[in-house]
Inverse folding.
């Protein structure tokens, strides 16, 4: 395999939510296969900057797959072709020389476009605000070892708590449903003894908020699970529906 | 001699000093707290935890962050765990607290305040209670109690963890408490805001100027006091393990407005990170240090070797750590491992892109223990490595290189976490407090939560109770002045119209700082670094290019504003490194080492915190010092041999 490849990008360009967007095409030469897709976009942006063209806007920060900032459609797929991988962890060696890569923003009514590939995911925070927490105040916590939790239970809770809030599940769903996001939070909290008492109430509040934020109904075709970079199981949606 | 504020340390016994201090702090009734507004900048572990706690108590909080959601702050990336001194019996409690205290002071090579380290250790256990009650799913033992592991060379097992994602889980705990307060109407969230200046009136912080990153407008925020929880400045080095947007702007602007900066040259380099693969590499990913338990570090004996590692026979490999340290081999302390790797690469033996890398080979451990055992130990890590590098580390030796990871230096704060500016509190990595010249593994998360949940809520309240006077007319004037200043600064950057991108200059800065003010330092190179950064600064101001845009959103401008401050901060870091004529902790001056190449501290001259004051009248810096006294623990030299 070559160390450097050429890539053709077709990118959605839209200056704001109020304006109209178009696809623009860019060719990029000498792309090291050792860099990530976002780094290839950095490289492209440096070229654009020297030509006094507005660089492509996309969200990112940690670039190690944990902050949940990055994410757009790569050839139609949220976070691209690799399973269990965020956009920032997708490396150019996964693409062929002269490949065409189409980049588009998440498409969901609840995620208005900010610019180009960047969307506003504030609706996800609103879901947590509606009830995604325990009602405990600082300094009033009992001894942490008072309530034993089995390692299996703790780990099962942890697995759902790994959701990074990127929004891929919403973007992948044809109904733009946030069911997996909400189910993951309900399962994180509801599996722990501290959270059992208000499990029902929490579920009611968060699910009501889903409707207020304009997220759709669960489409049952498991696309959310397939695109989740943290591979959270869609079975938690069934678990949620039984609360 | 000293021309700055008193550190306000508790008197008498080191133990229990915090309880004594708390007794003397003033409090307010919840109704009164309701009338005070507090600005908190930053939503990582310390910012979120402080915001949630202060809001619970009744204060009105405005929280500003450049993220789109508080869940994204860089604390989310912390992998290892959080230290806590906990034992099941009260009797043993003192023993474990003393142990964590001692390890923190020794880890910092006696360059932190004893009283603060003691408090950190004493409060640590309640932090675990707090986090568990929020629903943080820590690892558990079979009997259902909390599990711990040994971390970073510690002799005791006291690190609590949630797999390799402890920072993420702790942050989500604080984030959820924060959003609960948003729901109750006690916190107002201002996301996508870059804080670009502070409003200071009569030496008291009363507000901030922020740029709305979506529409580009400048906004003024006023409050009764300001809390900065904006993290560290490892991104001075361009490539680091930090998130890309992590920056020093808020603390640097506070510094230029009068807040003193402590020990800026104390920066930690982590020995085991994935090295750069090309010039467009944007960050370095940390690989757990535990790999050194099973990996042998080597380089080809041939200089500038381009051979594939599999084709290099045993006799042509130099296991340089094992050769130089027969007793400890690959497990020498972090800074020693980093320095030896750097030296070998500078001599031309390095491998990979730019010759900046060494091999870490798991082959012999796999032969000895079997692939299954190694996979069980490091499975996740090896997967992550393969995803980034594209090579299977069980077949091809891993490439690693040291990378900037954490900055101990930060704004000077007293025991109450307040800077020398009244009502300007600084929390977490942004301050200089407990870590001294080097931070103990798993103490970063601990410090953030200590500052946020337990210390600042008490001290901020007390300060507000005693400072109720507000001069609205003067605040108006100061806001206007600060707003104008920022506006001018932005316009000046946009006016440059050169031909080089921000990243071009940032990479240049990183290279100078990494090679001359990084893993090891010496006077001559520091002096030349100072000149090089000065040239870079001029170049930046005449050759920067920010492309024109008709949208308020302007990422290149955001980056340029951050870089401008990083360049200025670099100069202070270099000056501080020149002035500290000793080796201590992570600050290694080549002139001051033992025959064995160990760091040589100079307690007679440097047992102090260097405190830098900015003089705005002539744009210069003055160095003051705060003497450190050790009552509970004797000053001695670390000895890993």
């Amino acid at each position: 395999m070559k160390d450097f490849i050429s890539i053709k990008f077709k990118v959605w360009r839209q200056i704001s939510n109020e304006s109209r967007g178009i696809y623009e095409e860019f060719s990029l030469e000498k792309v090291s296969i050792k860099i990530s897709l976002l780094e290839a976009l950095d490289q492209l942006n440096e070229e654009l900057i020297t030509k006094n063209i507005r660089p492509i806007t996309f969200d990112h920060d940690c670039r190690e797959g944990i902050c949940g900032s990055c994410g757009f459609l790569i050839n139609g797929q949220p976070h691209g072709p690799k399973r269990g991988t965020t956009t920032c962890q997708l490396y150019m060696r996964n693409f062929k020389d002269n490949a065409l890569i189409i980049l588009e923003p998440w498409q969901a009514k609840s995620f208005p476009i900010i610019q180009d590939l960047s969307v506003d995911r504030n609706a996800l925070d609103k879901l947590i605000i509606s009830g995604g927490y325990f009602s405990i105040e600082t300094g009033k916590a009992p001894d942490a070892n008072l309530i034993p939790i089995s390692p299996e239970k703790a780990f099962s809770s942890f697995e759902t708590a790994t959701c990074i809030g990127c929004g891929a599940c919403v973007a992948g769903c044809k109904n733009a449903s946030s069911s997996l996001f909400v189910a993951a939070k309900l399962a994180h909290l509801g599996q722990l003894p501290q959270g059992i008492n208000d499990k029902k109430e929490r579920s009611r509040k968060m699910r009501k908020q889903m409707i207020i934020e304009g997220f759709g109904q669960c489409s049952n075709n498991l696309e959310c699970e397939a695109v989740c970079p943290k591979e959270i199981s869609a079975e938690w949606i069934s678990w949620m529906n039984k609360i | 001699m000293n021309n700055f504020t008193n550190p306000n340390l508790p008197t008498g016994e080191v133990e229990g000093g915090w309880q004594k201090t708390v007794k003397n702090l003033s409090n307010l009734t919840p109704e009164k707290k309701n009338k005070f507004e507090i600005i908190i900048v930053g939503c990582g572990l310390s910012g979120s935890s402080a915001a949630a706690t202060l809001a619970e108590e009744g204060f009105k909080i405005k929280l500003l962050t450049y993220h789109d959601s508080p869940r994204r702050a860089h604390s989310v990336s912390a992998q290892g765990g959080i230290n806590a001194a906990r034992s099941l019996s009260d009797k043993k409690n003192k023993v474990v607290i003393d142990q964590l205290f001692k390890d923190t002071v020794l880890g910092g090579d006696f360059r932190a305040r004893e009283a603060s380290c003691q408090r950190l250790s004493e409060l640590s256990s309640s932090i675990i209670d707090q986090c568990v009650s929020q629903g943080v799913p820590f690892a558990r033992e079979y009997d259902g109690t909390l599990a711990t592991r040994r971390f970073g060379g510690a002799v005791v097992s006291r690190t609590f963890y949630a797999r390799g994602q402890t920072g993420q889980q702790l942050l989500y705990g604080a984030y959820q408490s924060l959003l609960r307060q948003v729901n109750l109407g006690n916190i107002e969230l201002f996301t996508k805001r870059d804080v670009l200046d502070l409003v200071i009136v009569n030496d008291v912080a009363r507000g901030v100027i922020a740029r709305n990153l979506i529409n580009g407008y400048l906004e003024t925020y006023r409050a009764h006091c300001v809390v900065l929880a904006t993290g560290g400045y490892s991104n001075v080095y361009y490539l680091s393990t930090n998130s890309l947007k992590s920056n020093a702007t808020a603390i640097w602007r506070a510094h230029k407005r009068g807040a003193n900066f402590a020990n800026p040259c104390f920066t930690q380099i982590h020995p085991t990170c994935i090295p750069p693969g090309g010039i467009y590499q944007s960050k370095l990913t940390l690989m757990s240090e535990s790999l050194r338990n099973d990996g042998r570090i080597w380089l080809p004996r041939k200089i500038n070797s381009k051979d594939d590692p599999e084709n290099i026979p045993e006799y042509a490999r130099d296991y340089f750590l094992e050769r130089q340290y027969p007793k400890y081999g690959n497990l020498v302390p972090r800074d020693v491992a980093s320095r030896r790797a750097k030296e070998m690469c500078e001599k031309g033996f390095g491998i990979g892109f730019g010759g900046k890398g060494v091999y870490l080979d798991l082959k012999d451990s796999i032969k000895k223990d079997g692939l299954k055992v190694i996979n069980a130990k490091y499975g996740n890590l090896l997967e992550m490595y393969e995803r980034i590098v594209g090579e299977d580390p069980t077949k091809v030796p891993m490439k690693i290189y040291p990378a900037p990871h954490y900055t101990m230096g930060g704004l000077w704060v007293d025991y109450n976490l307040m800077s020398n500016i009244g009502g300007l509190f600084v929390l977490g990595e942004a301050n200089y407090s407990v870590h001294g010249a080097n931070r103990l593994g798993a103490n970063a998360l601990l410090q953030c939560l200590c500052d946020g949940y337990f210390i600042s809520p008490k001290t901020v309240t007390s300060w507000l109770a005693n400072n109720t006077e507000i001069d609205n007319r003067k605040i108006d004037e100061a806001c206007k002045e600060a707003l104008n200043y920022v506006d001018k600064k932005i316009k000046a950057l946009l006016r440059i119209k050169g031909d080089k991108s921000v990243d071009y200059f940032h990479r240049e800065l990183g290279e100078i700082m990494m090679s001359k003010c990084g893993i090891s330092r010496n006077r001559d190179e520091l002096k030349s670094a100072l000149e090089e950064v000065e040239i870079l600064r001029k170049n930046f101001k005449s050759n920067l290019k920010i492309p024109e845009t008709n949208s308020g959103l302007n990422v290149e401008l955001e980056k340029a504003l951050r870089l401008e401050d990083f360049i200025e901060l670099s100069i202070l870091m270099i000056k501080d490194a020149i002035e500290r004529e000793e080796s201590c902790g992570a600050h290694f001056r080549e002139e001051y080492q033992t025959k064995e190449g160990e760091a040589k501290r100079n307690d007679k001259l440097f047992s102090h915190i260097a405190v830098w004051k900015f003089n705005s009248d002539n744009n210069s810096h003055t160095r003051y010092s705060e003497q450190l006294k050790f009552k509970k623990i004797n000053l001695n030299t670390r000895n890993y041999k």
Notes: The CA atoms of residues 97 and 121 of chain B lie 5 Å apart.
